[in-house]
Amino acid sequence: MRKTIGGGLLVALLTANAVQAQQVTYDEALNAAVSDQPLVRTSELRLEARREVADAADELPDPRIRTGLRNIPITGPDAFDPVMMTMFEVGIEQEIPNLAERRARAGLASADIEWAAAELSHARHMARIGAGQAWIALAFAQRSETVASEALVEIARTVPLASSSVAAGNARPGESLEVRRAVLEVEDALTRIQAEEEAAQARLARYIAIAHATASGEIPSADVDERWLRSILEYNPEIILADAQVLRAEAAVDMARSELRPDFSVGASYGVRDGQYGDLFSVMGTVTLPLFRGRRQEPRISAASSEAASARQARADMLRALEARFEEDLAAWRSAYRQWQRATEEMLPLAESRVELERASFAAGRAELLDVIDAIKALALLRIEILNREQATVAAAVNLRLTYTEHER
């Protein structure tokens, strides 16, 4: 039993370390996931960048300065000698895109903002899901560890009973070894639980930047509102992201159509000639002529329209996939909930009654020590299994609420 005592000391040390670790509630984990998450911060910075650049989307292009020598003869008797029309010219030119193009650029910038905002919402959405699932795993690992530790203590109490039974001749010496075998089985379960707890801490640290957090506070409810969740599927962050992609594609169509309209430019220049001639001032304007639409603008419009149609179909397919995944997750939650109820309401009372009956039978000399030990071990393992089923139920409920709830609209 030295190993049993050592196992008890190990559990005590682990419990003391857990007390010293930073405690985090479920709501705190969700809130920290969207404030301490680098991926979320990346999306926030991207949104800020889109907003800053949007103000310049419909501005006119920068004007151009033009300078140089004009009308220098290179042949004939006046080759490379200034003549009346030779001048040093300085000018400025401003391109003026058509109004439809400027509006399309503004619309495209606005669509980029919507897409960046949807991407931020989706990043926060995924961070909440990850943090919530990790917290649930950690909380139930801690509870399972407590149950397994209590089971070790309960089994250890049968040691004096086994020793006295062997001494009195009521049990064979080999039967006392069953106590040790039962302890080993529960210790194996405890080792697995502790590994799951460490893994859950590592996953939670991915979202809240706390290396060795412990879950505290109430466990989230295992119930869900099916009708309400189903009614808001269209506002899911994944669908909002798809809507933003459709908006960007439609803005690209407007941008392509704006090429059908002519663009303009205006310019002014001042020419300095030889002293015997007067200086010159010129004003010019240009207009683009989209004469070959069938080979230039219309193919780009057609391609942009196809991309927009593709984005709309992708959005419809994503909604169907989301609805199918929701029904699958809902079915998994129902199954887990029924299994948890069945284990709690039917299997647990049977196991507890068996322990009481085996103890009474052993005291009356109608049962063997092995039966008592096996009943205690079975009850301990069942309690761990019930916690696993409860975890599966709560995790399924949390997954439904976090995955399919409207977070930001």
UniProtKB/TrEMBL annotation:
Signal peptide: 1-21
Molecular function in Gene Ontology: efflux transmembrane transporter activity; porin activity
Keyword Protein biosynthesis applies: no
Keywords: Cell outer membrane, Membrane, Signal, Transmembrane, Transmembrane beta strand, Transport
Pfam families, per database record: OEP
Subcellular location: Cell outer membrane
Principal cellular location given in the protein's record: membrane
One CC-aspect GO term: efflux pump complex
Highest rank taxon of the organism: Bacteria
Family indicated by similarity: Belongs to the outer membrane factor (OMF) (TC 1.B.17) family.
UniProt-listed PANTHER family: OUTER MEMBRANE PROTEIN TOLC
Protein name: TolC family protein
Species the sequence originates in: Croceibacterium salegens
Lineage of producing organism: Bacteria, Pseudomonadati, Pseudomonadota, Alphaproteobacteria, Sphingomonadales
